[in-house]
């Protein structure tokens, strides 16, 4: 149960996931924000108008998946690090998962890391494809991970394999 473990249930996840048809069209943001809290920076950062305007500051973000182009501008603005971008079209066997990251050291492109799920369990090896870490992102790097396609909806963080 989410309130006890911090891990969303299948029902929680089903309520926020884009349909398979949308996933097959390219990158799309997923807001794994499950609590009503006063927060709306994601709405203000979305230049596509994909994050619907909040009726109440305590509302949870609602994404219009048809308007979302997966740019990820909302990711670095989310103080809860709860928005991810998934691109199922990245490759035949791999998907791209963009993850907000606020730890040091920042991983390097080409590095192989251990992809972990929402419970902190390792699920697969992943490769760092790109690191976005610009001033406008306000110290929240966006790490692009190539993961086995079957884990694209599970991988939500990673662990570096060795300390540098």
From TrEMBL:
The UniProt record lists the 4Fe-4S ferredoxin-type domain at: 59-88
Which PROSITE patterns does its entry note? 4FE4S_FER_1, 4FE4S_FER_2
Q: Which Pfam families match?
A: Fer4 (PF00037)
Domain of life (superkingdom): Bacteria
This protein's UniProt keywords: Iron, Iron-sulfur, Metal-binding
What protein does this entry describe?
Answer: 4Fe-4S ferredoxin
| GO molecular function list | iron-sulfur cluster binding; metal ion binding
State the species of origin: Desulforamulus ferrireducens
Gene3D superfamilies (UniProt xref): 3.30.70.20
Q: Which InterPro entries match?
A: 4Fe4S_Fe-S-bd, 4Fe4S_Fe_S_CS
């Amino acid at each position: 149960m989410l309130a006890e473990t911090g891990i969303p249930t299948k029902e929680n996840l089903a309520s926020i996931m884009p349909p398979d048809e949308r996933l097959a069209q390219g990158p799309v943001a997923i807001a794994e924000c499950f609590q009503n809290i006063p927060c709306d920076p994601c709405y203000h950062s979305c230049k596509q108008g994909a994050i619907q305007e909040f009726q109440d500051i305590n509302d949870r973000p609602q994404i219009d998946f048809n308007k979302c182009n997966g740019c990820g501008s909302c990711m670095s603005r989310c103080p809860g690090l709860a928005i991810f971008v998934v691109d199922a079209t990245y490759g035949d066997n791999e998907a791209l998962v963009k993850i907000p990251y606020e730890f040091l050291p920042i991983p390097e492109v080409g590095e192989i890391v251990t992809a972990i799920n929402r419970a902190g369990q390792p699920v697969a090896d992943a490769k760092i494809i790109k690191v976005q870490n610009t001033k406008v992102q306000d110290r929240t790097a966006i790490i692009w991970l190539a993961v086995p396609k079957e884990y694209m909806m599970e991988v939500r963080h990673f662990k570096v394999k060795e300390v540098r």
